[in-house]
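lol so apparently i was supposed to do this last week
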Amino acid sequence: MVKLGVNIDHSATLRQARYRGVAPDSTIIVEPNPIEIALLAERGGADSITAHLREDRRHIVDDDIRNLRKKIATKLNLEMACSDDVLKVALEIVPDYACLVPENREEITTEGGLDLIQNKDKTARVVEALSAKGVICSIFIDPNPQQIEIAKEIGAPTIELHTGAYANAWGNDVQKKIELERLAKASEFAKSIGLTVNSGHGINYQNVGELLQVADFNELNIGHTIISRALYVGIEKAVAEMKSLLK
Ligand code: PXP
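anyway here it is w/ pyridoxine-5'-phosphate bound
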């Protein structure tokens, strides 16, 4: 069965919308609490919890990562850019997995895969530093064979294929088919050279089924749709519903 990584960033987005800057020892009720969200997601069947510690700390903050590390029972997947500042936190906290992503301050959420042609040496150094601590590194890349080959070359055991183009092609059957074929081929190639293949971005309750038909992914990382659905049915049920679609 495909594993489900639940990205909890947007629970922190909601918290920060009101409580950014409240001191950790304040007696104010700071809500929602992303750690509680993670624990409920685990009850719903999450196999791992993903949190993106962005350089601008716009949603998840350092203490969230520390508390997740202490409290969750599943795996902690730290999404991060290859910046010295965040690498320092990662080396202190030692998540189970690290997913290396590009970061652009203007973007609302991660927009594209990490370009390993442009960023090979820097990414290789981060993979080496994290791997030395036992962190399993994944690189978030577009479904492109050249990117996959570089991920392998620099020693990442896992890649996460960017599914955003597939999600954005919804409603355009011709483009959707092109994107699904691209993902299928990329996944097959990556597996043939020994990589573990995850995927993520823009996956939702509607498009997950067709994605699962074209490739055998190890794990899907899903955030926005689950946090949105949680507003209607609660996080535990929202996760359980997605989990049942992965069976
Ligand atoms: N995987 C990666 C690497 C991401 O950057 C994101 C978005 O933060 C996701 C998965 C989850 O995407 P979504 O929120 O669209 O499900």
